[in-house]
Amino acid sequence: GEEIAPVLRRCAGILAAALGEALHAVRPGASPTQVISPDDLGDFLYICAACGYKHEGFLKACRKWLLAPNVSGTGKLLDGASRHVSLVHMLHSLAVLEAASGDIVKALVLTVVPRLEG
What is the percent of the chain with per-residue pLDDT over 70, rounded to a whole number? Predict the structure, then answer.
């Protein structure tokens, strides 16, 4: 765990900054999904949770990302997850990292349940 902490810290810091820029449209035409896909975000959150690594800036950016509308404005960015397990990873990892709020849990559940039922 300790050997990977510096790598996670660096990656989480870079992702937090890039997601913040994309979410606030600091870069014209920047989309949060150009920074990281929903599936890759789920994987990275899973690694952080498995290693017990918390980066508040990254977790804050993730929470904003999860609630952000997609480019067309017809849904959320997390609707773009192609793997159901990515959504489960996000939900589980945020819970393990104590970063799952009511809005986040609701958004993830409302996205994953119809997929599992269908």
Answer: 86
Which pLDDT tens digit goes with each residue over 37-89?
899 999 999 999 999 999 999 999 999 888 887 665 666 778 888 998 999 99
Three-state SS for the chain is: CCCCHHHHHHHHHHHHHHHHHHHCCCCCCCCHHHHCCHHHHHHHHHHHHHHCCCCHHHHHHHHHHHHCECCCCCCEHHHHCCCHHHHHHHHHHHHHCCCCCHHHHHHHHHHHHHHHHC
**What's the one-letter identity of residue 57?**
G
**Is residue 41 within 8 Å of 24, Cβ to Cβ?**
no
pLDDT for position 4: 92
**Following CA atoms 89, 114, 101, 93 in sequence, which dihedral angle do they give, to the nearest 10 degrees?**
-10
Torsion angle in degrees (nearest 10) through CA of 64, 67, 71, 73: -140
